[in-house]
Automatic annotation (TrEMBL), chain B:
Keyword Iron: no
InterPro entries: Bact_response_regulator, CheY-like_superfamily, Sig_transdc_resp-reg_receiver
SMART domains, sorted: REC
UniProt organism field: Hyphomicrobium sulfonivorans
Record protein name field: Chemotaxis regulator-transmits chemoreceptor signals to flagelllar motor components CheY
Keyword vocabulary terms for this entry: Phosphoprotein, Receptor
Family matches, as SUPFAM superfamilies: CheY-like
Superkingdom of this protein's organism: Bacteria
PROSITE patterns listed in its UniProt record: RESPONSE_REGULATORY
Length: 760, 121
């Protein structure tokens, strides 16, 4: 039951997302009927599931909502702007109701009523939030008590017991005389007189007489006609309604008359042949244990067969057991000619049982299993690296059989890894989809007009990354609207469109996913940011800071302007928390801002948290790994390319460009004296905002795929170090956080500790 | 002799509920997410009873039933319509499409099995 609930709520989330994106498309002017249908279905599905879980509030609201959507679907209600706004609000309320149903808590009754009333006004029907759904929805809990269903009748149609004519009638039993004449439509809809008769006989003692009098001659016989009728004398303690309910599905597809009392005396018996249902059913089963009646006329046998054929797919068996002449008639007479072509159930069963009943194109797998697989693949990669290392150490030639085998092994490992990563990858859509609602809410509270544009929703990234993106993104979008965008009046005064624009986009760039949150607002008010930073003692009053440095002040812990500006962006979380959570994902945040034109926050994140390609380097006899994604090129600098630049700073000239040269050994505190640049290797790296720098290392050992092992669980966050890995020879190597190192060196501080303190 | 039931419903919750109730009652269960997929399943599988939803993407329940009824292999298979709609119009549409019977959501497992029994030989 719990897992069903879980599935239900998961599905609700999907349906809500579908609902919202559909409504947004409709709001955007789409008139695709399929979108309206999808929106309708989303609400409909939620209602259907909610009914099964007896979630009354949810069912009621969904019902009202669905009614309006049905009007839209039928083209009776236009989707002009006030209507879509009402629908979007209703979608939000529905989402709230789902959340409350799942997590508990209180619903905002007023909001629900307002929305329900709005909806009711639209549909023109007097349906308020308290109105009962028009259809009968029984709120009984779908308890899933194991249903111990033992229906021998499925396996054994012998119902002889229940039709024993001699059985004494119950004292309060009633006798009904039922005349039942199917129309051809009853057969074409796959209803079965035999099944109905069987059900009837379960109610009590049944005497069944088949009327074959209307069977025409062969020439006049229509293959799909209906020529049989039955009169059943049923003695039962059940009510007439119970008797009628058996014919519920065929109501309208037959002539049915139920008379209380034994109206039909044996004298009224139709001119056909008496037939005992036990024998009849036995024949349906193909059990001709005893010839029906040796003395019966061919006509009688024919009628019997007709019953058998009409009744079941076992017609072939039945037919085979009948003397030859009548068969021809019988086959011609069967109401559904295809019945005979249907493979006998036993055969169908065998086919069904031999294959897995899986027809879905997707399977749902527990995330733990994928993670376990991911971990194992990680170990495999390390193992493979060790093997390669040993091979090299053993001095085996690169073209030896072992080496080629190992190359293939390496390729396979890599493929497996990519395969597993692809399992974990999901489009960022799931997070992006939550943002339109947020934008509407924040816009409503701040009184600003906002349009949200999303791009690259299908960009895929690891599931964990996606999950942990939701909070920072939410915060940054709030910020963009609350702090970034101006009020409509100010915008008009500045010659901008009244409606502010927030653009949320995702794309893949050099093995990472880059997410931009851009607004076309006023840009960062640097004076104000500076003033706040000074006031809070984050910088010295006379500090010389570039615009970029001022902008980055907002990421400092303790900077949060939330309390002084409004309560929307704040909620006790500052940009420093955003930055930390992005860093925890191995990502970076950068900001570009232009006064009057707006700001763009850029998040750059790894596609997976498990592996990366790294350049293994030596620095001061330590082995370090530099993520390959940040390296643009490597070069061996000539002494003449290196220039002093005041203090310890040095730059390297490359193709008429001067780039800062960062001595990794000194930045990390491995050595106090600057290394000899002529003896080392420079790694040209690209860091936040696309700026290039050169990292100075002593030597390059090679490139390889490495499995990331987090240090934070055991050591906390180490400045300049992103994580660690295990190398092929079993040693642990640290993975450099290139951006942090570049940022630290940029501050010009010779002491790495203070540099990192400011950056972090 | 285990019967095989094909369930066609776009709601995963509903599919799972049907699966649980039907397996509990001892049936084999095949699943499809919409009418198209339902027809796809019937290309190489046999069902003793089909239970289908009405509102579905791509091919809805009405269309699905009509297709099955035109298919010589499956036209005699009983089809139960699983629907939240209890209005007469939907029922009569379902019937003219070829539905054998119907189950109104939310269904109770006992009633579900009862309905299956009332259409399957």
């Amino acid at each position: 039951m719990d897992s069903l609930r879980q599935i239900f709520f998961q599905e609700c989330e999907e349906q809500l997302a579908e609902l919202e994106s559909g409504l947004l498309e409709i709001e955007g002017g789409s008139e695709d009927p399929e979108i309206v249908n999808a929106v309708f279905r989303a609400v409909h599905s939620i209602k259907g599931g909610a009914g099964a879980f007896a979630l009354e509030d949810l069912v009621r609201f969904a019902h009202v909502f669905e009614t309006v959507l049905d009007e839209v679907r039928k083209g009776r209600l236009s989707t002009a702007s006030p209507v879509t706004e009402t629908l979007l609000r209703a979608a939000d309320v529905l989402a709230d109701l789902v959340r409350v149903a799942r997590d508990g808590g209180n619903v905002n009754e007023e909001r629900i009523h307002t929305s329900a009333d709005e909806l009711a006004a639209l549909s023109g029907a007097p349906i308020g939030a308290n109105a009962e759904p028009e259809e009968e929805v029984s709120f009984e809990d779908f308890g899933f008590t194991p249903v111990a269903m033992d229906f021998p009748v499925f396996d054994d149609i012998a119902v002889v017991d229940t039709v024993s004519v001699e059985a004494e009638a119950e004292p309060d039993a009633t006798t009904y005389t039922i005349s039942f004449r199917p129309h051809p439509g009853l057969y074409t809809n796959a209803n079965e007189p035999v099944v109905l008769l069987r059900e009837l006989s379960r109610l009590g003692d049944a005497q069944i007489v088949c009327d074959t009098s209307t069977i025409p001659t062969l020439e006049e016989l229509e293959a799909e006609g209906s020529y049989l009728a039955w009169t059943i004398t049923l003695t039962t303690t059940h009510e007439e309604d119970d008797v009628r309910s058996i014919f519920e599905f065929v109501d309208g597809d037959c002539d049915l008359e139920i008379i209380t009392g034994n109206a039909a005396s044996s004298n009224d018996e139709p001119a056909g042949v008496d037939d005992d249902i036990a024998a009849l059913l036995a024949r349906v089963r193909g059990e001709f244990t005893e010839p029906v009646d040796e003395s019966a006329s061919p006509a009688a046998s024919a009628a019997d067969v007709v019953v058998g054929l009409a009744g079941s797919a076992t017609a072939e068996t039945a037919a085979a057991a009948i003397p030859s002449t009548p068969i021809i008639e019988a086959e011609a007479a069967k109401p559904t000619p295809e019945a005979a072509k249907t493979p006998p159930p036993a055969k169908a069963e065998k086919a069904a049982g031999s294959e897995a009943p899986s027809t879905n194109q997707t399977i749902r797998v527990d995330l733990d299993r994928v993670d376990r697989l991911m971990n194992l693949v990680g170990e495999l990669v390390i193992n493979q690296a060790m093997l390669s290392q040993r091979l090299t150490d053993a001095g085996l030639a690169r073209d030896s059989e072992f080496a080629t085998g190992l190359d293939e092994f390496e390729q396979l490992t890599h493929d497996i890894q990519e395969g597993v990563m692809a399992i974990r990858a999901q489009p960022v859509k799931s997070v992006f989809q939550r943002m339109p609602r947020l934008v509407r809410e924040v816009a409503a509270i701040t009184g600003k007009k906002v349009r949200l544009v999303t791009e690259g929703e299908d960009t895929e990234v690891d599931k964990t990354v996606i999950e942990r993106l939701a909070d920072p993104l939410t915060h940054m979008i709030r910020n963009a609207i609350d702090h970034g965008l101006e009020s409509p009046e100010k915008r008009l005064a500045a010659g901008k469109r009244e409606e502010g624009l927030v653009r949320l986009s995702a794309s893949h760039r050099s093995g990472r996913i880059v997410i931009d949150i851009a607004d076309d607002g006023a840009g960062i008010n640097r004076q104000r940011v500076r003033a706040i930073a000074e006031e809070k003692g984050l910088i010295q009053p006379n500090a010389q800071l570039t615009d970029e440095e001022v902008d980055n002040l907002i990421f400092l812990p303790g900077f949060s302007t939330a309390s002084t500006v409004s309560d929307i962006s704040g909620r006790g979380v500052g940009m420093d928390v955003v930055k930390k959570s992005i860093q925890a994902l191995g990502g970076r945040v950068s900001i570009t801002s232009r006064p009057g034109e707006g700001s763009t926050f850029t998040l750059s994140l790894p596609l997976t948290l498990a592996v990366l390609y790294g350049m293994v380097v030596t620095v001061a006899e330590q082995t370090l790994v530099v993520p390959l994604t940040s390296i643009v090129e490597t070069l061996k600098p000539k002494a003449g390319d290196i220039h002093g630049f005041g203090g310890d700073s040095r730059v390297i000239s490359m193709r008429n460009n001067f780039l800062p040269l960062i001595d990794v050994g000194r930045e990390l505190g491995y050595r106090s004296q600057p290394a000899d640049p002529g003896a080392g290797v420079a790694l040209l790296v690209e860091s936040d905002g696309g700026a290039h720098s050169a990292l100075m290392v002593d030597a390059i050992q090679g490139q390889r795929q490495i499995v990331i092992k987090s240090l934070e669980e055991n050591y906390g966050r180490v400045p300049g170090v992103a994580a660690a890995t295990i190398l092929g020879d079993g040693r642990v190597a640290l993975i450099l956080d290139v951006d942090a190192i570049v940022a630290a060196s940029r501050t010009g501080a010779s002491n790495s500790e203070t540099a990192f303190a400011l950056a972090g | 002799m285990t019967k095989t039931i094909l369930t066609v419903d776009d709601s995963r919750t509903m599919r799972e509920m049907l699966l649980l109730a039907l397996q509990e009652a001892g049936f084999n269960v095949l699943q499809a997410e919409d009418g198209m997929m339902g027809l796809e399943v019937l290309k190489d599988r046999q069902a003793d009873v089909i239970i289908t939803d009405i509102n579905m993407p791509r091919l809805d329940g009405f269309g699905f039933i009509e297709h099955v009824r035109r298919d010589s292999t499956h036209r005699a298979v009983p089809i139960l319509v699983l629907t939240t709609e209890s209005d007469a119009e939907k029922k009569s549409r379902a019937r003219s499409a070829g539905a054998t019977g119907w189950i109104v959501k939310p269904f109770h497992p006992v009633k579900l099995v009862d309905a299956i029994r009332r259409v399957s030989a």
